[in-house]
Structure formats: structure tokens, C-alpha cells
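Session log. Operator J.P. requested a structure for one protein chain; no other inputs attached. Running the standard single-chain path with C-alpha cell output.
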Amino acid sequence: TSGDISAVVSLFADVESAPLSIHQLTARGAQAGTPVGSWFGPTTWARATAPALEPHLKCVVCDGGVIYRGAVESFPVLLLLPLRLGIDCVAAVHRPALSAVLKLPSSVGFVGGTPRHSLYFVGARDGDTLLCMDPHTVQPALRAGDPLTPAPEPTPVDVAKIDPSLCLGFYCRDAEELAGLSAALDGMQDT
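Structure written below.
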């Protein structure tokens, strides 16, 4: 509903009090040892974002590339899974699975990027082409109650060109969706 959308948008408003504003995230990063103005890696981003979401949505940061079902005690839940999938680039063995993950119903995309340039990946095309949004695209400041403006078209990026450090995101409404996600991810390990 429009009320739900407004509530979500207000979390990101460009005011210091908004829980997911740049002000709050940089402050949380600084508390974690990443000075304001420094680049956040995906793990630092996940650790700064999770507490900001907690009053609004259960958020679990899954360390070590493992989703522990016992860590999920309530629903809905956002699972953040920081990973490193190679040394200098995403290893070729992981590229098909990374594209497949973006097509899962519970996927909310992933944060990552090219070296020293953050991107938000929202989908995949055929082959090794991923679709991303650039958070550095200048837009008018977002304030609570402002009308929504359409997002720009996603930009295609070759998966071989992205940094191997990234953070996958999955949203599960209930235990059944978590079980479906687990089964899909287990199936990817077998291929």
C-alpha cells in the first residue's frame, strides 16, 4: 500500500534522524572502526545496517558464508550474507550461482561493486551480465512525505569485473520461505 511504501521510504530520508540515512550509517560505521569518509566493505555495511533495521525488521548478519537456521527466531527476516568469492575478481566457478541467486524469489539483491565503487545489484541477464543501480547517482534529497520518483534504469555489468567482496540479501516472510531458500541454495551447491 502507499502507506507501507511511505513508511519504508521514511527510513531512508535524508535527515539525521532517519534510521537508514547516510548520517546514521556513517556514524555506525565509525563506531565499528571505519572513519567517516572511508569506504565501507560489504561486511562493515551489513554490520552498520542491521542494527538500524532492527526496530522495523528482524535482520540477521550471517557470518562465514553460512545461514544458521537457529539464528532465525522470528519472521519476517532480512538475511545479510557477506561473502568473498575470489581474490581479485569473482572466481569463474561462482559466477553462474551468483546470477542464479539474483533470480531467487527471496533475493533482494546484493551490495558490492567494482574496486572502490559501491553498487547495488538487482538482477541478472543471460550469461554473465548482472544489473545494478549506482547509489552515487545524484538525486534530490529524500524527505519523509515526498512523492516517489522513478528509479533510473539498471546498468549492465559483466560479473567478471566486480569485486569479489559482496553481501547477498534475502527476505523471508515465514519459515516456509526460509526452507525454500535453504533448499534452493543447497541445490546450487550440488551443481
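Operator note: The longest strand covers residues 77-84.
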